[in-house]
């Protein structure tokens, strides 16, 4: 059995639950929404990631003996709440953007409907997963755009917490990377893994030549030799002397990459190794990758910048109550009033409007059902963005596991084609398309 | 049994192992060192964190059936290597800085000694843990310095991957925070947890007054009421009307905090609630905390900035082979030659030199044993920085669990007192003390 995820939770969710069970509001049906108020870091688009992971973690959101004992011993909640938690199981519904989908400010990435009691406790877990994974996926998509057809490998595990590293490998793959160095990501999510040798391999041996010979003996001549431990020119010369002109590749992990790549390509060609690939891996980000577009580089390995979201390590999404039932059972749209953090109350339906296949707006219809569909129908080509993820407590398994990852990656690569050209520039900017709200509620006044 | 941590590893470690088992170099004894070449982000000092976590994860670094099956099916390694991994157990030794200790460029934070085979495979796990946790602890220490005697709570779980969030709570606590919102950090590491209510609590109720009454009924009047869901002035007035002047605290999560805090203090005092505390929690970092020093704020809650290392989400440490035995059994210091990433070969002993209790340098003696001790003895007051963490495969349990955390926190707060005053400024700068290398190897020439 998987370990419980129930305590990956901020304490205030359980203290609210405790108080709500006392005053009866715990059983009011509520709609919570997970969304980003803006695209952090001046991004032109965001990429949703983490949804499939969250659904699996939701299955393990149960309070077992260990969790209940801690909550009792620490007096986090009272006895009645402990009893409630012992039987806790999310029985509500979640709709949301497909994993890999693009998003913009206000996009309702997840809509969680259930009682206050069952939905309020999911806030931290849902945000932790989506904020981290989407930040990585958004950075990764920019790198993937910059790299064009050249393959990208994620190699940043060492620069992220050991579990986040696995999630980061997954998010980068969904956003267009082709492989990861992280073995657990390979096992858990079926992502192709790669990697051959570090500098320590060369240093372990008495000579660079010994190291290269041993690597080729073990991995064959299609392997990639790391040639910059001592002198790069000598390293390349030794590599081809040892492996022959059929050597698969060389890796360069230091120096001024455009200069060094050009020199190494020239040297390889002069030695007859015209098919030997050049992989570069030194502190790359989307800007460095773009700057190498004209250089004779065959593949990129990206570490720190992708796993840390290239300057934006969290997507900054929030989880807000947007509608609830009142004492009489009617629905009320709600929103915090503070001007600097205002959010929009009410349940929402989201569509991407397209013109000739190119996205023109994020259309968010406040209210759902027929009114929303009518609004969307007014647009010639509006793609609905939300799908059912959990129905009455039943998780749709299609989004989980390696299959979910492949499907998210395919979806991402497909919908990225809808972006207008200006979305692909790397500089800071406003979102590439505007978010347009349409209020279709019969009684339009949200509190 | 805990899940295996063995695949939290970059593939190249296993391909190197595979090749080394073939050519016999796998059994050469090696010294690997984990260190940072610089203090990322213009920090004046770093704080070591993660050591205790790493030691526990090391206990679970075993290749079981699942791990071996994946490596076999994916042809990551050959049959001989699978057999080696099946019996894998780290039998070497690790010395290192105590958790909570300060560090500077080149500080040998971990020294791992064992065969190449057993030490090379720990690279990714060790770096993942120390890079993440130390980045958080370093940011947290700066916030703790800025906050002075006012309590700090870590509330950033939602802005970090769900497992990194637990580690971040732990690292922040070691570096001077007093509590966390993360319940799992409370259970696993014994860290005090805190939190009362979110905006959704107020929005759930028909009126703000209903919400405050219900919270007080459940949590007592010593609770903290969140007063900025609608209008702060009305919120404060309602809070005191409902709770009386004995209300424990109010929390403000929006607005221009110096202005708002002053207004709220004035209003509370005018209402007679002179003991009611003010907690602020809106997008704080060390600079915002410092700017609030003159404001009537009683406590800070910090989220995003602490869990993301306040602009520096990874400490940028590396794991390098620094010495190995040659074919004849003699020791050779080794280092990569590339000029932009040069590291210093050889085993090292580290001391902090002090003058009147204030740190003056990070003294790193290349070589160990008597020569190192002699060098250190030349300084009137040199504190040795390394302790034994693993001896012949046996982990020192004193560094693990809640006890390890408390001891690391106490150590941190003690050694922070040694910092010169200039180390406490928040602006970007060079390290507060210089790193001084002394080469005491009998044959001084490192390769």
TrEMBL record, chains A, B:
Q: Which Pfam families does this one have?
A: NAPRTase_N (PF17767)
Could you state what the record's PTM comment says about this protein? Transiently phosphorylated on a His residue during the reaction cycle. Phosphorylation strongly increases the affinity for substrates and increases the rate of nicotinate D-ribonucleotide production. Dephosphorylation regenerates the low-affinity form of the enzyme, leading to product release.
Q: What are its E.C. numbers?
A: 6.3.4.21
Name the UniProt key words of this record, in alphabetical order: Glycosyltransferase, Ligase, Phosphoprotein, Pyridine nucleotide biosynthesis, Transferase
- Gene3D superfamilies for the chain: Aldolase class I, nicotinate phosphoribosyltransferase
- InterPro entries linked: Aldolase_TIM, NAPRTase_N, Nic_PRibTrfase-Fam, Nic_PRibTrfase_pncB, Nicotinate_pribotase-like_C
What would you give as a GO molecular function for this chain, any one?
A: nicotinate phosphoribosyltransferase activity
Q: In which pathway does it act?
A: Cofactor biosynthesis; NAD(+) biosynthesis; nicotinate D-ribonucleotide from nicotinate: step 1/1
Instruction: Please state every residue range assigned to the domain named Nicotinate phosphoribosyltransferase N-terminal.
Output: 7-131
Q: Which reaction does it catalyse?
A: 5-phospho-alpha-D-ribose 1-diphosphate + nicotinate + ATP + H2O = nicotinate beta-D-ribonucleotide + ADP + phosphate + diphosphate
Its family?
Belongs to the NAPRTase family.
Write out the function statement from the record.
Answer: Catalyzes the first step in the biosynthesis of NAD from nicotinic acid, the ATP-dependent synthesis of beta-nicotinate D-ribonucleotide from nicotinate and 5-phospho-D-ribose 1-phosphate.
Q: Would you tell me the protein name for this molecule?
A: Nicotinate phosphoribosyltransferase
Species name: Microbacterium jejuense
């Amino acid at each position: 059995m998987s370990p419980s995820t129930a305590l990956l939770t901020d304490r205030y969710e359980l203290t609210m639950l405790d108080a709500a069970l006392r005053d009866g509001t715990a059983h009011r049906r509520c709609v919570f929404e997970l969304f980003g108020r803006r695209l952090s870091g001046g991004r032109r688009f965001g990429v949703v990631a983490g949804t499939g992971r969250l659904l699996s973690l939701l299955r393990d959101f149960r309070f077992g003996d260990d969790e209940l004992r801690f909550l009792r011993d620490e007096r986090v909640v009272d006895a009645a709440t402990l009893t409630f938690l012992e039987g806790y199981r999310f029985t509500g519904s979640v709709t949301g953007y497909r994993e890999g989908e693009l998003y913009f400010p206000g996009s309702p990435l997840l809509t969680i409907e259930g009682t206050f009691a069952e939905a309020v406790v999911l806030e931290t877990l849902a945000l932790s997963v989506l904020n981290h994974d989407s930040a990585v996926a958004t950075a990764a998509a920019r790198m993937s755009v910059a790299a064009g057809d050249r393959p990208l490998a994620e190699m940043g595990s060492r620069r992220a917490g050991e579990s986040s590293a696995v999630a980061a490998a997954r998010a980068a793959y969904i956003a267009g990377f082709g492989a990861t160095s992280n073995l657990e990501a390979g096992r858990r999510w079926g992502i192709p893994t790669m990697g051959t040798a570090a500098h320590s391999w060369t240093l372990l041996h008495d000579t660079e030549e010994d190291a290269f010979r041993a690597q080729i003996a073990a991995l064959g001549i299609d392997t990639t030799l790391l040639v910059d431990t001592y002198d790069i020119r000598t390293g390349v010369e030794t590599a081809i002397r040892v492996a022959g002109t059929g050597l698969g590749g060389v890796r360069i992990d230091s120096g001024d990459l455009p200069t060094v790549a050009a020199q190494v390509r020239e040297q390889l060609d002069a030695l007859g190794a015209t098919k030997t690939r050049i992989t570069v891996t030194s502190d790359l980000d989307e800007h460095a990758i773009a700057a190498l577009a004209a250089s004779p580089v065959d593949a990129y390995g990206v570490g720190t910048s992708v796993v840390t979201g290239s300057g934006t390590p969290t997507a900054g999404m929030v989880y807000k109550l947007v509608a609830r039932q009142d004492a009489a059972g009617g629905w009320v749209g709600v929103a915090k009033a503070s001007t600097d953090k205002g959010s929009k109350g009410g349940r929402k339906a989201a569509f991407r409007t397209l013109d000739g296949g190119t996205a023109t707006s994020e259309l968010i219809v406040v209210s759902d059902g027929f009114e929303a569909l009518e609004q969307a129908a007014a647009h010639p080509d509006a793609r609905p963005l939300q799908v059912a993820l959990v129905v009455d407590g039943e998780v749709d398994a299609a989004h989980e596991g390696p299959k979910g990852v492949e499907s998210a990656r395919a979806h991402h690569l497909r919908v990225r084609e809808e972006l207008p050209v200006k979305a692909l520039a790397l500089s800071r900017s406003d979102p590439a398309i505007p978010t347009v709200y349409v209020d279709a509620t019969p009684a339009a006044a949200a509190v």
